[in-house]
Design goal:
The protein has about 290 residues and is an alpha/beta fold. It contains eleven helices and eight strands. The protein has two domains: about 240 residues, TIM Barrel, CATH 3.20.20; about 45 residues, no CATH class. The chain is globular.
């Protein structure tokens, strides 16, 4: 879809979404699930979630691409983010990977473009995409967050900035210590929310929440084997996202059913599927309400 032909979010609606999104981070804990297309965004909205976040990996898979830095080009990512933001009437946070640029000035330019899609928040990570040097050196990483902060401030929009430390995901030898060092620096550089995807141990999560306090921390929850929402609320976590987990749950059903058909001529993987009528009637009602 050409972004020029997408439904425009009225300015007053944008202001309201951005104010509401900021308020969600002030007290308590909320879950921000990650849709990967219009249909999943609208269904999640119908379940009563107060905000949504895009998932770069979930979208990459729909394009037949891996979730590596910039396999999905910047403009394609912006198109997708704008599509999700305009498809629902609640705040949307953009998974903006590493800002689609290395240098701080280019990150700032791209953040300005992302703000124009109608998002209420965006995240910038510190992974380089380089296997030899998987994380930006801390001074440069801090400059990149400062540049994103300056771009948001210049826009006057109040978009919420999340800074991500990717230490756990890139296999850093001491991911907790390095995450704490980086998140504290990003908080000082102007990030509104701090996020280190990967930790599952209570002690690690407690250390992260304590280190960034009073700023809110986002924690990734991708399994029922991890800490519960009640546990995370007790620790003081403000926001919980699921990353690619919902997308992978959908892929799991598809892969299992397709493999059975291909390898065993077995169609049992299609049993117990959600009925066609349930899905179709949901979108029929959704369309009528727009």
């Amino acid at each position: 879809m050409d972004r020029q032909n997408q439904p425009k979010i009225h300015d007053e609606d944008l202001v309201a979404r951005r104010v509401a999104y900021r308020k969600l981070h002030e007290t308590g804990l909320f879950v921000i699930p990650n849709p990967w297309d219009i249909g999943t965004a609208r269904y999640l909205r119908s379940l009563g979630f107060k905000a949504l976040a895009t998932t770069s990996s979930g979208f990459s898979f729909t394009q037949g691409l891996p979730d590596t830095d910039w396999a999905v080009p910047r403009d394609m990512a912006l198109e997708h983010i704008a599509t999700i933001a305009s498809s629902v009437d609640i705040p949307v946070n953009a998974d903006f990977e590493s800002g689609y640029a290395h240098e701080p000035e280019a990150v700032a330019h791209n953040v300005t473009l992302c703000i124009a899609t109608g998002i209420a928040g965006l995240s910038i990570e510190d992974a380089t995409g380089d296997h030899e040097s998987p994380l930006y050196d801390l001074p440069l990483a801090v400059e990149r967050i400062q540049a994103a902060r300056a771009a948001i401030d210049a826009s006057g929009t109040g978009v919420l900035l999340t800074a991500r430390a990717e230490c756990y995901l890139v296999g850093h030898p001491d991911p907790l210590h390095e995450s704490l060092r980086r998140l504290e620096a990003y908080a000082a550089a102007g990030a509104d929310v701090l996020y280190a995807p990967g930790p599952t141990k209570r002690s690690d999560i407690e250390a992260i929440v304590t280190a960034v306090h009073p700023k809110p921390a986002n924690i990734l929850l991708t399994s029922s084997k991890n800490l519960s929402l009640d546990d995370l609320a007790t620790i003081g976590v403000r926001r919980v996202s699921v990353g690619s987990a919902l997308s992978r749950a959908a892929w799991t059903g598809f892969i299992n059913a397709a493999r059975r058909i291909a390898l065993d001529s077995d169609f049992s993987g299609l049993d117990n599927s959600v009925p066609y009528s349930e899905i179709n009637n949901f979108f029929r009602k959704d369309l009528a309400q727009r």
